[in-house]
Amino acid sequence: MTERIVVVGAALLDAGRLLAARRSAPPELAGRWELPGGKVEEGEAPEAALMRELREELGVEAETVERVPGEWPLRPPYVLQVWTARLCPGSAAPEPLQDHDALRWLTPTEIWDVDWLDQDVPAVRKTLPKLTTGAH
């Protein structure tokens, strides 16, 4: 059996909004939107990988909240797992530092205004109820 490599994605929530990041690379993904994140390094916990990736890609300090149920196949051997996350108090605002050229905070009514990567759609769908709960 081939080894699976976990890719973590962050459903970064703030004030009832979800952060979407537009890919700038690789060319076949450029211009489409995703939940920011990246590969889990060997020996690294998925939650730790997610916090590291958010620091590297967006320049933010964030904490994971809970795992979004399910996982989604990417190009073998990769699988996507998603956690909801929130910015830590005092964190800088997210900036597109690497792999992305734009960021958008989306409200529930705007969530489908962007062209999500196919593999992120089910995770975004599962995250949507979290935007409406507790949002004022």
Automatic annotation (TrEMBL):
GO molecular function: 8-oxo-7,8-dihydrodeoxyguanosine triphosphate pyrophosphatase activity; 8-oxo-7,8-dihydroguanosine triphosphate pyrophosphatase activity; 8-oxo-dGDP phosphatase activity; 8-oxo-GDP phosphatase activity; metal ion binding
Entry keyword set: DNA damage, DNA repair, DNA replication, Hydrolase, Magnesium, Metal-binding, Mutator protein
Residues of the Nudix hydrolase domain: 3-132
UniProt-listed GO biological process terms: DNA repair; DNA replication
UniProt-recorded name of the protein: 8-oxo-dGTP diphosphatase
InterPro entries associated with the record: MutT-like, Nudix_hydrolase, NUDIX_hydrolase-like_dom_sf, NUDIX_hydrolase_CS, NUDIX_hydrolase_dom
Superkingdom: Bacteria
Cofactor(s) listed: Mg(2+)
The family this protein is said to belong to: Belongs to the Nudix hydrolase family.
EC number: 3.6.1.55
Catalytic reactions on record: 8-oxo-dGTP + H2O = 8-oxo-dGMP + diphosphate + H(+)
Pfam families, A to Z: NUDIX
